[in-house]
Amino acid sequence: MSSKILNGTRLAQQIRSQIRQKLKKLNITPGLAVIQVGDDPASTLYIKYKQRDCQKVNFHSEVQRLPADITQHTLIDKVKELNDRQDIHGILVQMPLPETIDEQTIIDTISPNKDADGLTPINLGNLFINRERITPCTPTGIIRLIELTGEPIEGKKAVCVGRSHLVGKPVGVMLLNRNATVTYCHSRTKNLAEMTQQADILVAAIGKPKFITAEMVKPGATVIDVGINKVEDKLVGDVKYEEVKEVAGHITPVPGGVGPLTRAMLLENTLKLAGRFTGSELYE
Ligand code: NAP
Ligand 1 centroid to 206 CA: how many Å? Predict the structure, then answer.
């Protein structure tokens, strides 16, 4: 069997086109502010892509670049300044931050009403009680890719390998909210392959190149590869793509799978937040 490729690049294009249509109903220009601390080259590249995406949908975007030795106090003040700005509807603090800064404290400072990444405790709490409003970008993009298969999520056995706040844990909750039966696996899981072999939907968010092999995958499963790993200057996922695509029913490529969807969901969240700012129904 050779699986169907879930093309994230094409789906993201369609979502951007829908966003341009929805934007016509808004009387304001959505504004996204990204804070970058330090000059990590990968972060600089990701931010460049996000700005380019904003241009494509006619959003205002700006980057606040701050030195790596900035104090936590000054960074908090910067976030608060953006919280108060009328022309900024979404705020994103590019991670990782320098070790001297507590990431969660910074996320806690972002107003839930401007939380473009959907990672503040209020928005994650809403997700937890199945009140999905502003949801984290990567998990939401993963759900969109699974929906692209045309198969229902309800009743499926889903296995998430990885339990980070950013990806694994929230995507598991989103699958549970859609009535999948969800199992979380992580670095302390015993007999991992036994778990993954049962998955109708397998989400790999581990950060280890080509970790999921064909023997770990149930024939016909939907395999979502979240991993972004640099190996000899090439990007590879957490799934051994060439062999797993022969077993899976559907699979996401790396690059061109989850990554473009994550960025499209950032635009969608910013649009929702701008809609909410104007009292438009786009927020719901
Ligand atoms: P993370 O915070 O490092 O979490 C990795 C998770 O994998 C942890 O829960 C860890 O378990 C688990 N893990 C590590 N080794 C394992 C093993 N041998 N067996 C089973 N589980 C294991 O990473 P993350 O932020 O979730 O990101 C995961 C990957 O996705 C990274 O490659 C990242 O670059 C990528 N990513 C991609 C996008 C995108 O848009 N495509 C967005 C975000 C992240 P413990 O909890 O026990 O440590």
Answer: 3
Radius of gyration of the chain (CA): 19
Residues with catalytic roles: 50, 94, 117
**Phi then psi for 161, rounded to 5 degrees?**
-100, 110
Q: How far apart are CA 176 and CA 171, in angstroms?
A: 9
The tokens describing 120, both together, are: 């503040």
- Ligand 1 surroundings by CB, under 6 angstroms: 138, 161-164, 166-168, 185-189, 192, 205-208, 226-229, 258-259, 262
- List of the chain residues with pLDDT < 50: none
| Angle, in degrees to the nearest 10, between helices 8-23 and 137-147 | 110
Q: How far apart are CA 275 and CA 284, in angstroms?
A: 9
Distance between CA 53 and CA 46 in Å, rounded? 11
pLDDT digits (tens, 9 = 90+) for 51-89: 999 999 999 999 999 999 999 999 999 999 999 999 999
The rounded Å distance from CA 171 to ligand 1 centre is: 12
